[in-house]
Amino acid sequence: MKKAIVLGFEVPRGPDGVSIVALLQAIQDKYNYLPEKFLRRAAREMEVPLIDVYSVAKFYKSFSLVPEGRHQIVTCTGTACHVRGSEKITEEISRTLGVEVNSTSPDGEYSLKCVNCVGACASAPLVIVDGEYHGNMTPLKAGKLFAQGAKGKTAVS
Amino acid sequence: MAPLPVKFKTKEDFLSFKQRSIEQYEKNRCYLAVCGDTGCSVQGSKNLYDQLEIYLRKQGYTENVKLKCTGCLGLCENGPLVIVYPQEIFYQRVEPEDIEEIIEKTVIQGEIIERLLYSDPVSGEKYIYGRELPFYKSQLRNLLEANWKIDPGSIEDYIANGGYAALVNAVTEMDPGAVVEEIKKSQLRGRGGAGFYTWVKWEECRQQTGRKFIICNADEGDPGAFMDRSLMEGNPHSVLEGLIIGGYATGAQEGIVYIRAEYPSAVEKLKLAIDRAEDLGLVGENILGSDFNFQVYLSIGAGAFICGETSALIASVDGRIGEPVQKPPRLVQNGYLGRPTVVNNVESLANVPLILRDGAQKYCRVGTEKSSGTKIFSLVGKVNNTGLVEVPLGITLREIIYDIGGGIKEGKQFKAVQTGGPSGGCIPASSLDLPTDFDQLSSAGSMIGSGGMIVMDDETCMVDIARYFLQFLADESCGCCFTCREGISRLLEIVKEISDGSAKPGQLELLKELAGVVKDSTMCGLGQTAPNPVLSTLRHFEEEYRAHIEQKHCPAGVCRELITYSIDQKLCNGCGLCLKNCPAGAVTGNKKEPHYILYDKCDKCGVCTTVCRAEAVIKQ
Ligand SMILES: Cc1cc2nc3c(=O)[nH]c(=O)nc-3n(C[C@H](O)[C@H](O)[C@H](O)COP(=O)(O)O)c2cc1C
Ligand code: FES
Known about the structure:
The complex is a heterodimer of chains A (157) and B (620).
Chain A: E1 3-6, E2 9-12, H1 20-31, H2 36-46, H3 50-59, E3 71-76, H4 79-83, H5 86-97, E4 103-104, E5 110-115, E6 127-129, E7 132-134, H6 139-150
Parallel strand pairs in A: 3-5
Antiparallel strand pairs in A: 1-2, 3-6, 4-5, 6-7
Chain B: H1 11-27, E1 31-35, H2 38-41, H3 45-58, E2 66-70, E3 82-84, E4 89-91, H4 99-109, E5 118-119, E6 126-127, H5 134-137, H6 145-149, H7 155-160, H8 165-173, H9 176-186, H10 198-206, E7 213-218, H11 227-234, H12 236-250, E8 254-259, H13 264-279, E9 295-300, H14 310-317, E10 341-345, H15 346-358, H16 360-364, E11 374-381, E12 387-392, H17 397-404, E13 414-419, E14 425-428, H18 440-443, E15 452-457, H19 462-476, H20 482-500, H21 507-521, H22 525-529, H23 532-540, H24 542-550, E16 565-567, H25 577-581, E17 587-588, E18 596-597, H26 607-611, E19 617-619
Parallel strand pairs in B: 1-2, 7-8, 7-10, 8-9, 11-15
Antiparallel strand pairs in B: 1-3, 3-4, 5-6, 11-12, 13-14, 13-15, 16-19, 17-18
The complex binds flavin mononucleotide and FE2/S2 (inorganic) cluster (FES).
Flavin mononucleotide is lined by residues 190-194, 196, 198, 217, 219-222, 306, 308-310, 343-345, 348, 450, 524-526 of chain B.
């Protein structure tokens, strides 16, 4: 793949060089969020107003402007997962870990997000913990997956 | 491994490489195909593959028994799947504990292991060979067939199975106009949703001059659909070959694959495929000694459904926010960087090499008059055999759901099938005999869309489904058109009121009127089709809406505000499982005595129903 180094990040290159989206993705991948100073640097580097960088960061769901938790929990809320009860699973995880959807627990351990379909619908409903897929979830199983976590132990490893 | 890459300079270079790849491929007749697709990985196929590798090495079998990590084999529900070659014995739900037996008994002695065979959920009949399964028998797997045979990481496997022959032939023997002509004859229609004739876009682009682009739309935003992902994971070279041929035919020298970030494995497979094709000179400068140059770039999406829409997609590739723009000018005149641009869906492109290889005439023999070829559907939801199915366009929904899908899970009643994603609609039982082609499904208020097919039983509430899609669309609307941004939110508000029982009579009329406004006054496809899920459920299931409004009753037992849980005092044996598991602490009772649910604490999560062995929990 064609790449370029921008601000010290390895970024995929398109026909027109590096795009802001691609650069922000590289930053997000490294820090799990977009630190303000990098948004400013990106704007300078790409020679665009900061507001343009900011609007891109706000528009796309995979970017976060605040630090995310050490463990990333994603529940799938795509249609196939929905008809097999994903809503209740998200609630159960939210309750067990004390973290709202699209936010991070106060201790910085967990972030909970919903996405629409990860393409493994046959095993619906799905929960992804730090990149590991758990299929055929039920609220009960989901609760158990994190039960120790709520008590302060490292649950998801 | 076949000899290392030298860039092909002539057709002969390619043919001799192909010959060597075939010889190599033929040598390894005895192998195990383990599905490595995301679907089976979820069920543990990666670990299974590793364990198999360790076992083969430990026992010294690696010379004679090969392992292949393939793409999606189709029947995801019963994963992990393993196929034993050369006999093609089909094992399902394979666990690491089964490895020794599979190798020692099946591979070495040719014995069948009964317990790992697929048995039909309805008749109970067992099947040894994959092809005999009813699930595969009624399919026509032109695109997906290769998934069984090739390792997606190996360009040699692809070439040995006929890959890149179409490209080589096109570049060396045909002029671009002839390629477009062949696609025209095949009547290939776009698989991304709109069903637009591929040749029309290609021809218009071909006639433009200067710098041009061809983009593969691999955004697959339609939730519940994963055929594009599986094609890219299982056979990435077929998509790439289609893209390069598209470049040759349209005169675009730069190709971009816009792929969503939610598909990490597909991104990896594509990257590898592009690198390998570059190594062999199938991508790059002076392809096969001709004056055709073609570069391929990857652009990774950042999570926005609207970026599947072509003009939003182009904005996103350019690094801007994904807002659609008004057309005309059309993209073939003014697209990426203001240059002529063609956007094609993954599956559309994967069809291209097949058409050139077998000829348009043969391609046209499959499907209907106006919808030729096959279509891949992802059959999911409450159906017995979930997975990827590829069928000739025009077969009926009933055939897909019952003959291939094996009917509804747990013998329940079919209620509707949702097709076309957030732009589509729900099709009721009375329309099950509709043929699946581009034009007929629209008559039932839905569309083929990209190919997601979500089967629903009588425990799915249609109001809830409408609410679900409106929520989805409200979240995903880019906010550019007022009637889309506000209209969808208001539609959602009304449907939410219906689902929580607070709607007043007359709301249905308002819903219909507003839906019409959104449809007529928005700019892009998202807004124009946004009311479809509401309108189609209203059209076929109006009485269900009325039950919510008039009787404050949700017949499917889904809408939370309208249901209550209680415990049947006669059936409850006081085992205490519900009390122990209730996350809200809403169950009380003494051990060995009937328990009770405290209504004010109960938040209707339904855990008690799933844990109760005496079936004493009543949902009303
Ligand atoms: C809101 C919206 C989302 C879309 N999402 C996709 C998508 O994820 N994948 C896709 O191939 N086409 C998608 N389309 C359709 C594309 O706009 C376009 O029609 C298609 O990519 C053209 O390729 P085709 O002719 O090969 O089908 C979407 C359209 C709209 C309006
Ligand atoms: S809907 Fe959840 S994986 Fe597709």
